[in-house]
Design brief:
With about 300 residues, the chain is α+β, with helices and mostly antiparallel strands. It has 14 helices and six strands. Helix 4 packs antiparallel against helix 8, helix 4 runs antiparallel to helix 11 and helix 10 packs antiparallel against helix 11. The chain is globular. It starts with 8 loop residues before the first helix and ends in a 22-residue tail after the last helix.
Length: about 300
């Protein structure tokens, strides 16, 4: 598969991985293994970097033909960085050094929405563990010669009937569990949001109770390939942006103000900051906040 612009497969698809032990995503050098649930069924696929503008793809399962049709968008063929000309030296340098960083578009809403809901207001470590447990318990075995332990995310009809005690065992509080089930009940209409403009799709996502600005942005970045979706409300992001660009922390309001001139590429700017070591620039001060365990409640 060739696309018009350079693509770094591993780096560009990194945001799709939910923690180092995600049962739906594995990375090995220049190769990415992923599973997905297409309209036509489950699929396992392996992407291997093939020159600066493409990747080799092998796919297995009923959803393989559909996945191959969507592959250009997944690799960022629709991602247009023209007009992105940041003034800040650090951003300009990151953009120069990472010309193959693409914003992927999966076109699969629920697969981005459920893990984003699980990540609301909790440590990433806890959310990744919840996702891993639920997908391993309720997902399907990955078709084809997938690495051991890989699973296909549960279908909407499965998420709708996950018992409350299974969410509890996965350390998911009742509020987030209800939001997952509610979104699964609305899955058909939510999947149609890929036909809308990214801004309209985000607005409609936010109309679902339990889905706020942060969650809608996290989905838009992945499912819609939205290069402007800014994750306002993220516990770390404003500080990362502040320390990377200004040498001091910012709050959400400050981040929004500082990135405003970069519309419609604010998410692209954040990805460049993160991929160029943004988290390492934040001073480490004091102990980490404790991970909440809802299972004892």
């Amino acid at each position: 598969m060739r696309i018009p612009r350079p693509v770094d497969v591993v780096r560009s698809l990194r945001p799709l991985q939910r923690g180092p032990y995600d049962p739906c995503h594995r990375t090995d050098g220049t190769t990415v293994w992923r599973t997905s649930r297409m309209d036509s069924g489950p699929v396992t696929y392996r992407l291997t970097q093939d020159g600066p503008h493409g990747a080799w793809c092998l796919a297995w399962g009923p959803g393989a033909p559909e996945l191959l049709d969507r592959l250009p968008a997944l690799l960022g063929a629709d991602d247009d960085p023209s007009g992105f000309a940041p003034d800040h030296p650090a951003l300009a340098e990151a953009h120069r050094r990472l010309p193959a960083l693409r914003i992927p578009r999966t076109g699969r809403v629920l697969e981005s929405l459920v893990p984003a809901i699980l990540e609301q207001r909790v440590h990433g470590v806890a959310a990744f563990a919840s996702w891993r447990r639920l997908v391993t318990r309720f997902g399907d075995p990955a078709p084809g010669p997938a690495p051991e332990g890989m699973r296909v995310p549960p279908a909407a009809q499965v998420w709708r009937v996950v018992p409350s005690w299974e969410f509890h065992r996965a350390n998911v509080d009742p509020g987030r569990a209800r939001t997952v089930v509610r979104c699964a009940q609305l899955a058909d209409s939510l999947e149609r949001l890929v036909r809308c403009t990214p801004a309209e799709a985000r607005r409609k996502l936010r109309s679902v109770p339990g889905v706020g600005v942060w969650t809608a942005a996290e989905v838009a970045q992945r499912a819609f390939g939205d290069s402007d979706a800014l994750s306002v409300g993220d516990y770390h992001l404003a500080k990362v942006v502040g320390w990377s660009l200004l040498g001091r922390p910012l709050d959400d309001a400050g981040m929004i103000e500082h990135l405003e001139p970069l519309r419609p590429h604010r998410h692209r700017a954040v990805r460049l900051i993160v991929e160029s070591g943004g988290y390492a620039r934040v001073p480490k001060r004091g102990p980490r906040t404790p991970i909440t365990d809802h299972r004892g409640r």
